[in-house]
Amino acid sequence: CSAWSTGGFLPQSQSMLYYHNIWFEALAASFFILGSINFVLHYVVWYKDRKELFKDIEIKSMIATTSFLTLFLTVGLIKDSIYSTLLPLTRKGLFQLLSAHFGAGQCNIYSRQFITQWGDLGLVALILAMMFGGSASSTAGGFKLFRIGGGNI
Questions:
Q1: Interatomic CA distance for residues 73 and 96, integer angstroms
Q2: Helical H runs in the chain?
Q3: Residue 46: which pLDDT band, with cuts at 50, 70 and 90?
Q4: Could you give the 3-state DSSP secondary structure of residue 81?
Q5: pTM (2 decimals)?
Q6: Within 10 Å of residue 80's Cβ, how many Cβ atoms?
């Protein structure tokens, strides 16, 4: 599967929903995150100083925006009684949020569920996630986490 800002290209038209496998979804989500991290930071962490990962403003912005949007999305989905337990809320909601935030374009729900079930807060959370985007020098789009964190390019 393709999870690095490619519009969610998968061999199946239903995207990740076709596989209905939590382990595939977790693996894909890890690639969303890896693909949205600055490639220079990848190099520095891999070859020089692993502590840089936690000092980087984009990683701090990623954690802050993802936490805020997860809370926002969770409130929206609970308010509208979309998922009855924590597992589907996490599996469906967080996967969609990470995919939107980091530009992967993959889905594990039917497209019509966004309109018919997710409600206003859920859609706003995903729109904000897409708008924020990922790191500079990564595969993700959006404003970039560097700017959100207060940096200037």
A1: 10
A2: 22-36, 39-47, 52-55, 57-79, 86-88, 95-101, 111-116, 119-132, 145-148
A3: very high
A4: coil
A5: 0.84
A6: 14
